[in-house]
Protein backbone atom coordinates (compact mmCIF):
# COMPACT_ATOMS: atom_id res chain seq x y z
CA UNK A 1 0.00 0.00 0.00
CA UNK A 2 1.28 3.50 -0.80
CA UNK A 3 0.17 6.59 1.09
CA UNK A 4 0.68 10.07 -0.34
CA UNK A 5 2.27 12.32 2.33
CA UNK A 6 2.85 15.46 0.26
CA UNK A 7 3.33 16.53 -3.32
CA UNK A 8 6.98 15.45 -3.24
CA UNK A 9 7.07 12.51 -0.82
CA UNK A 10 5.54 9.07 -0.92
CA UNK A 11 6.04 6.30 1.60
CA UNK A 12 5.53 2.61 1.03
CA UNK A 13 4.02 0.79 3.96
CA UNK A 14 4.56 -2.87 4.63
CA UNK A 15 2.92 -4.07 7.82
CA UNK A 16 2.77 -0.63 9.42
CA UNK A 17 -0.36 0.56 11.16
CA UNK A 18 0.00 4.28 10.49
CA UNK A 19 2.34 6.90 9.12
CA UNK A 20 1.14 10.49 9.31
CA UNK A 21 2.71 13.76 8.17
CA UNK A 22 1.81 16.24 9.57
CA UNK A 23 0.41 14.65 12.68
CA UNK A 24 -2.87 16.30 13.70
CA UNK A 25 -4.88 16.25 16.89
CA UNK A 26 -7.46 14.00 15.21
CA UNK A 27 -4.82 11.28 14.91
CA UNK A 28 -4.23 11.33 18.65
CA UNK A 29 -7.49 9.42 18.96
CA UNK A 30 -5.85 6.53 17.11
CA UNK A 31 -2.83 6.68 19.40
CA UNK A 32 -4.99 6.73 22.52
CA UNK A 33 -7.01 3.77 21.27
CA UNK A 34 -3.72 1.87 20.88
CA UNK A 35 -3.01 2.61 24.55
CA UNK A 36 -6.55 1.65 25.61
CA UNK A 37 -7.45 -1.40 23.55
CA UNK A 38 -10.24 -3.78 24.46
CA UNK A 39 -7.66 -6.39 25.40
CA UNK A 40 -5.83 -6.11 28.69
CA UNK A 41 -2.56 -4.19 28.67
CA UNK A 42 0.28 -5.31 30.89
CA UNK A 43 3.09 -2.85 30.24
CA UNK A 44 3.74 0.51 28.56
CA UNK A 45 7.31 1.85 28.27
CA UNK A 46 7.83 5.52 27.43
CA UNK A 47 10.83 7.52 26.26
CA UNK A 48 9.65 11.13 26.40
CA UNK A 49 12.21 13.58 25.07
CA UNK A 50 13.68 16.32 27.21
CA UNK A 51 11.07 18.75 25.89
CA UNK A 52 8.12 16.47 26.47
CA UNK A 53 5.64 16.29 29.26
CA UNK A 54 4.09 12.83 28.98
CA UNK A 55 0.85 13.99 30.55
CA UNK A 56 0.44 17.03 28.28
CA UNK A 57 -0.09 15.00 25.12
CA UNK A 58 -3.22 13.48 26.62
CA UNK A 59 -4.61 16.60 28.33
CA UNK A 60 -7.13 17.75 25.74
CA UNK A 61 -8.39 14.33 24.73
CA UNK A 62 -8.08 12.11 27.78
CA UNK A 63 -7.04 13.72 31.07
CA UNK A 64 -4.63 11.63 33.07
CA UNK A 65 -4.30 8.84 30.50
CA UNK A 66 -0.93 7.74 31.81
CA UNK A 67 -2.20 7.74 35.40
CA UNK A 68 -5.35 5.93 34.27
CA UNK A 69 -3.26 3.18 32.67
CA UNK A 70 -1.36 2.80 35.92
CA UNK A 71 -4.59 2.74 37.95
CA UNK A 72 -5.83 -0.12 35.72
CA UNK A 73 -2.83 -2.17 36.79
CA UNK A 74 -0.74 -1.55 33.68
CA UNK A 75 2.97 -1.37 34.48
CA UNK A 76 4.11 2.00 33.13
CA UNK A 77 7.85 2.63 33.05
CA UNK A 78 9.34 5.94 31.94
CA UNK A 79 12.97 6.60 31.10
CA UNK A 80 13.95 10.26 30.69
CA UNK A 81 16.89 12.54 31.49
CA UNK A 82 17.79 14.74 34.44
CA UNK A 83 17.03 17.97 32.56
CA UNK A 84 13.47 16.87 31.86
CA UNK A 85 12.74 16.30 35.53
CA UNK A 86 13.68 19.90 36.33
CA UNK A 87 11.79 21.70 33.54
CA UNK A 88 8.63 23.66 34.19
CA UNK A 89 5.56 21.55 33.50
CA UNK A 90 7.29 18.21 33.99
CA UNK A 91 4.89 15.63 35.39
CA UNK A 92 7.61 13.27 36.60
CA UNK A 93 6.91 14.05 40.26
CA UNK A 94 3.18 13.44 39.81
CA UNK A 95 3.84 10.17 38.00
CA UNK A 96 6.33 8.99 40.61
CA UNK A 97 3.97 9.90 43.46
CA UNK A 98 1.32 7.72 41.81
CA UNK A 99 3.76 4.80 41.87
CA UNK A 100 4.84 4.91 38.23
CA UNK A 101 8.42 3.80 37.70
CA UNK A 102 10.64 6.59 36.39
CA UNK A 103 14.36 6.41 35.82
CA UNK A 104 16.69 9.11 34.58
CA UNK A 105 19.48 8.45 32.14
CA UNK A 106 22.40 9.95 34.03
CA UNK A 107 24.88 8.89 31.36
CA UNK A 108 23.80 11.16 28.50
CA UNK A 109 23.18 14.87 28.08
CA UNK A 110 19.69 14.42 26.65
CA UNK A 111 17.38 11.43 26.34
CA UNK A 112 16.37 11.97 22.74
CA UNK A 113 14.62 8.67 22.08
CA UNK A 114 10.95 9.17 21.26
CA UNK A 115 9.10 5.89 21.41
CA UNK A 116 6.67 3.83 23.41
CA UNK A 117 6.42 0.05 23.62
CA UNK A 118 3.09 -1.52 24.52
CA UNK A 119 3.09 -5.07 25.92
CA UNK A 120 6.23 -5.88 23.95
CA UNK A 121 3.99 -6.19 20.86
CA UNK A 122 3.43 -2.61 19.69
CA UNK A 123 5.95 0.10 18.84
CA UNK A 124 5.03 3.79 18.56
CA UNK A 125 7.95 5.90 17.32
CA UNK A 126 8.84 8.90 15.22
CA UNK A 127 9.84 12.53 15.55
CA UNK A 128 6.92 13.31 17.87
CA UNK A 129 8.01 14.97 21.14
CA UNK A 130 4.87 13.68 22.93
CA UNK A 131 3.62 17.21 23.62
CA UNK A 132 0.38 18.93 22.71
CA UNK A 133 2.41 21.65 20.97
CA UNK A 134 4.13 19.06 18.79
CA UNK A 135 0.80 17.54 17.83
CA UNK A 136 -0.99 20.83 17.15
CA UNK A 137 1.78 22.96 15.66
CA UNK A 138 4.66 20.87 14.35
CA UNK A 139 5.10 18.72 11.30
CA UNK A 140 5.84 15.34 12.86
CA UNK A 141 5.92 11.72 11.84
CA UNK A 142 4.66 8.75 13.76
CA UNK A 143 4.91 5.04 13.03
CA UNK A 144 2.80 2.46 14.84
CA UNK A 145 3.76 -1.13 14.11
CA UNK A 146 3.51 -4.65 15.48
CA UNK A 147 6.33 -5.96 13.30
CA UNK A 148 8.54 -7.99 15.66
CA UNK A 149 11.73 -7.35 13.68
CA UNK A 150 11.21 -3.58 13.95
CA UNK A 151 10.18 -3.71 17.61
CA UNK A 152 13.00 -5.91 18.91
CA UNK A 153 15.88 -3.35 18.81
CA UNK A 154 13.72 -0.73 20.53
CA UNK A 155 12.83 -3.14 23.33
CA UNK A 156 16.48 -4.13 23.71
CA UNK A 157 17.51 -0.47 23.90
CA UNK A 158 14.88 0.33 26.51
CA UNK A 159 15.91 -2.60 28.71
CA UNK A 160 19.62 -1.83 28.28
CA UNK A 161 19.15 1.78 29.40
CA UNK A 162 16.69 0.78 32.14
CA UNK A 163 19.30 -1.57 33.62
CA UNK A 164 22.13 0.90 33.17
CA UNK A 165 20.16 3.51 35.12
CA UNK A 166 19.02 1.27 37.96
CA UNK A 167 19.39 3.40 41.12
CA UNK A 168 20.38 0.29 43.08
CA UNK A 169 23.52 0.04 40.94
CA UNK A 170 24.70 3.32 42.47
CA UNK A 171 24.29 1.91 45.96
CA UNK A 172 25.18 -1.72 45.25
CA UNK A 173 27.33 -2.06 42.13
CA UNK A 174 26.99 -5.84 42.20
CA UNK A 175 23.36 -6.92 42.14
CA UNK A 176 22.45 -9.96 44.24
CA UNK A 177 22.15 -13.05 42.05
CA UNK A 178 18.81 -14.08 43.58
CA UNK A 179 17.03 -11.13 41.91
CA UNK A 180 16.07 -12.73 38.61
CA UNK A 181 13.88 -9.92 37.24
CA UNK A 182 15.94 -6.80 37.75
CA UNK A 183 14.01 -4.93 35.07
CA UNK A 184 10.89 -4.50 37.19
CA UNK A 185 11.99 -4.87 40.82
CA UNK A 186 11.33 -1.22 41.65
CA UNK A 187 7.98 -0.97 39.85
CA UNK A 188 4.81 -1.06 41.87
CA UNK A 189 1.36 -2.15 40.91
CA UNK A 190 -1.30 0.34 42.00
CA UNK A 191 -3.01 -0.44 45.28
UniProtKB/TrEMBL annotation:
Residues 172-191 are annotated as: Disordered. GO terms for molecular function: RNA endonuclease activity producing 5'-phosphomonoesters, hydrolytic mechanism. InterPro entries: PLD-like_dom, PLD_domain, PLipase_D/transphosphatidylase. This is Mitochondrial cardiolipin hydrolase. Belongs to the phospholipase D family. MitoPLD/Zucchini subfamily. The lineage of its organism: Eukaryota, Metazoa, Chordata, Craniata, Vertebrata. Residues 178-191 have a biased composition (Basic and acidic residues). Keywords: Hydrolase, Lipid degradation, Lipid metabolism, Meiosis. The gene is pld6. GO terms for biological process: lipid catabolic process; meiotic cell cycle; piRNA processing. It catalyses: a cardiolipin + H2O = a 1,2-diacyl-sn-glycero-3-phospho-(1'-sn-glycerol) + a 1,2-diacyl-sn-glycero-3-phosphate + H(+).
Amino acid sequence: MTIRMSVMWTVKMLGLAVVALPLGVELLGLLLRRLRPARTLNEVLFFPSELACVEHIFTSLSPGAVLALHARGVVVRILSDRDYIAISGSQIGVLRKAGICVRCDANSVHMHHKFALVDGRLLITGSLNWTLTAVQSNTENLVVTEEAELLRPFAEEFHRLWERNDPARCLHPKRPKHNSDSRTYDCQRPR
